[in-house]
Write a structure and sequence with these properties.
Blueprint lengths: L1 H23 L5 H24 L3 H34 L7 H21 L6 H37 L8 E5 L10 H19 L5 E5 L10 H11 L16 H14 L6 E6 L3 H10 L4 E6 L6 H15 L1 H24 L2
Parallel strand pairs: 1-2, 1-3, 3-4
Length: about 350
């Protein structure tokens, strides 16, 4: 029972870190890690406690392990099916096959690890130990990035459903690609969300500035923000409230250049940044990095598009913090290297 209490204390510590971090700034990505660790440890504690004290707890534990395995296989199959749907509806670009690759990886990785651990090169015992060490490192690194992804996904949902409480002085709408120079469904959902927020504020006598933000891509006949502004104006936004930003190429530039426009207009206070729901957490994190006093809110996205979109956002976050993630993996490399060295010394 000592272990149960220890796990509960650690879970409570992570919960306290989450609450403090969320109150300080809900846009911090580390909040997701604290929340996930707290929930995960609390869940593991409950399972372990049940196995100890509940009659037939061992059977319950075995059934839960089986359920997790079945859920994992089901998830892999669903991701593969989603990847096929993405290819059929959106084309064969790399960003559209991420869910397919993830599903294949979930199935292939355990098979590869089992194969590596099962290798027994009797005439090359040193090589056998080295291969197993590599397999161990692969497991540890996979667990790290798996927990990081779960943290990102969980906190994306939590942040996205947390209501904004302040009244925005401006609404920034992040751009996405045009199709033949016109607003496609994905971008339309962002604009419709912004319009709903804008009209809601107008009903209270408050008129926030609308900043559609997006430059002209290499395959686009005009800046995204120009088409976005036309859409806003055609759906009831007042011309004096719409100030497009047409130079940005990335989300970070969307935010920084929109802030310049708002500063030039003398608009202060807290802003809202509208994007799609899968993009909310990374957009919020970037507002913090560029010093923009803003909260990000999400618009609906087609369900089939969400898995690949979430994975793409996660890859972008990992790439953005690649130095930190490399450092975080160094202890795994050091541990496996040390154990490998000891094993080779004994031979």
């Amino acid at each position: 029972m000592i272990l149960v209490w220890l796990l509960l204390v650690i879970a409570a510590l992570f919960a306290a870190l989450y609450i403090a971090g969320h109150r300080r700034d809900p846009r911090m990505l580390r909040n997701g890690v604290f929340l996930t660790m707290s929930l995960g440890l609390a869940g593991l504690t409950g399972i372990y406690w049940a196995a100890l004290v509940v009659p037939g707890g061992e059977v319950v534990l075995a059934l839960m392990v089986l359920a997790i395995l079945v859920a994992t296989v089901t998830l892999a199959i669903a991701l593969i099916a989603n990847g096929i749907t993405m290819i059929r509806l959106e084309g064969k670009r790399l960003s559209n096959v991420l869910s397919l690759l993830a599903g294949i990886g979930i199935i292939a990785l355990p098979v590869l690890v089992a194969f590596l651990f099962g290798l027994d090169l009797q005439h090359l015992p040193g090589l056998t130990v080295t291969i197993r060490a590599v397999a161990s490192l692969l497991v540890l690194v996979t667990i790290y990035f798996g927990v990081a992804f779960i943290s990102f996904a969980v906190y994306s949902v939590v942040y996205g459903i947390t209501p904004a409480t302040s009244r925005p002085t401006a609404i920034i709408v992040l751009g996405s690609g045009l199709i033949n120079g016109e607003v496609p469904p994905l971008l339309r959902s962002r604009l419709d969300k912004a319009l709903a927020l804008y009209h809601r504020e107008k009903l209270t006598g408050h008129r926030p500035i609308l900043v559609p933000s997006g430059g002209q891509g290499a395959d686009e006949p005009r800046p995204e923000a120009t088409a976005m502004a036309e859409y806003l104006l055609s759906h009831g936004a007042d011309a004096e409230d719409v100030h497009p930003e047409t130079e940005s190429r990335t989300t970070r530039e969307n935010l920084a250049l929109s802030q310049k426009i708002l500063s030039s207009l003398g608009v202060e206070g807290e802003y809202l940044v509208v994007t799609n729901n899968y993009h909310v957490l990374r957009a919020a994190s970037l507002t913090r990095q560029v010093g923009l006093p803003a909260r990000a809110v999400g618009s609906p996205t087609a369900r089939y598009f969400l898995p690949s979109a979430f994975i793409r956002e996660y890859v972008a976050i990992i790439t953005q913090y690649k130095a930190f993630n490399a450092l975080a993996c160094l202890p795994f490399v050091a541990l496996v290297g040390f154990l490998l060295w000891e094993a080779l010394q004994k031979r």
